[in-house]
Design brief:
single chain; alpha/beta; Rossmann fold; 7-stranded parallel sheet; 6-stranded parallel sheet
């Protein structure tokens, strides 16, 4: 059996600060390094996760004086282009909006193929931002969607041919995790893992917490994650009279310890890709209640390995959470089924294998015309 060829890959992402996409890139880069690939990560700015990938052998480069997020940065694009001209990279792999459009602009005429991973349906995008995304997709050799909803949007809304689009859900390293051995405290713990940004709809989680407290007065609600809405969310918890029950923990280094405390993970998002937190909770045996948005229905089969509720409905979220707190047998049954599914379908090994296959196909299809800066034959008709 022939071994797959190792590649020199430039991964581009806005930063290595907190977030599911950032953690996905860390896990992907570490596994690619272990598999013999040469990995360089280019960011607008670095972040707390940089040390993890550097320890695995990846190089991390910061190209800008400040974070580039949800906008095009000419300086970021120029930095990426300089790297492509000064080094012999086989391939560029870009993640997130700002990085994808900057990498697409930088790669034109360099002869280096581009893979883009789309992590979200991008409901926040303006018409100009949608046009910028379309530019990135058009110039990419392959576009990966982390959920079926995203891949459907790429073909239906952006007109990408099916051969150019691949569905690869984000995977998590579950090899070291066993089912959680929780202490079963007398009062329930309902957690949330999210960046504190509008699309995560943390206010719905807080309103849900208020309703759950009416049934379980001793319940607590730890929130792992940080973001620009932290101050306003703390104020909302105070206004709802639940400030003492809610704890804003910030970014957590030991997520296994966080999940081991939970009786239920509640996900209130209005938009999602494939949340790593859900897979982690599934893998450690924590029952999940989540909104039926984005790639979450790819992860959760309602009533089989978790519960789904409509987005923006704190009452429905609270009723589903309460139903599991009141029925421990059902909660354990759902959690056991979720763990089996996480281990079989959402492992980082499966994700990396699929991405390596996409790299190989991209390089095999990358025609000489494009190396000269011309459009491939199938884009010239």
């Amino acid at each position: 059996m022939t071994q797959p060829r190792s590649h020199s890959v430039l991964i581009v992402i806005d930063s290595l600060q907190c977030g599911g996409a950032e953690r996905h890139v860390v896990d992907l880069a570490r596994r690619l390094c272990t598999g013999g690939h040469s990995i360089t990560i280019a960011c607008s700015v670095s972040g707390r996760f940089a040390v993890d990938v550097q320890a695995a052998g990846a190089e991390v480069l910061s190209l800008c004086p400040r974070l580039v997020k949800r906008r095009f940065s000419l300086g970021f694009a120029r930095g990426i282009r300089h790297l492509l001209q000064a080094n012999r990279f086989d391939l560029v792999h870009a993640h997130l909006y700002a990085s994808s459009i900057s990498a697409a602009a930088a790669a034109i005429g360099t002869g280096v193929p581009l893979v883009v991973t789309e992590q979200t349906e991008g409901l926040w995008r303006s018409s100009a931002q949608r046009a910028a995304s379309a530019f990135a997709y058009r110039h990419a050799d392959r576009v990966i969607g982390v959920s079926r909803a995203i891949t459907q949007s790429l073909t239906a809304d952006f007109g990408l041919p099916e051969w150019k689009v691949a569905y690869v859900p984000n995977g998590v390293d579950l090899s070291a995790n066993g089912a959680a051995d929780r202490a079963n405290p007398p009062d329930p713990v309902v957690g949330l893992v999210a960046r504190l940004v509008p699309e995560k709809d943390v206010p719905s989680f807080l309103h849900c917490a208020q309703r759950v407290l009416a049934r379980f007065p001793g319940a607590t609600f730890p929130i792992a994650g940080d973001g620009p809405l932290r101050t306003s969310l703390i104020r909302l918890a105070r206004e709802l009279g639940i400030e003492s029950a809610v704890s804003f923990l910030g970014v957590q280094d030991d997520m296994e310890h966080f999940f081991s405390r939970l009786d239920v993970l509640a996900v209130s998002s209005a938009a999602e890709g494939t949340p790593l937190a859900i897979v982690e909770a599934m893998g450690i045996g924590v029952p999940v209640v989540a909104t039926a948005v984005g790639g979450i229905p790819d992860q959760i089969d309602h009533g089989v390995n978790g519960l789904l509720v409509p987005p923006g409905d704190p009452r429905a979220l609270a009723e589903a959470v309460t139903s599991l707190l009141e029925d421990e047998v059902r909660a354990r049954t759902l959690a056991a089924a979720a763990r089996d599914r996480a281990l079989s379908e959402f492992s980082i090994d499966a994700t990396v294998t699929a991405i390596e296959d996409i790299y190989a196909a991209t390089l095999a299809d990358h025609v000489p015309a494009k190396r000269a800066g011309l459009a491939p034959a199938n884009e010239m008709t």
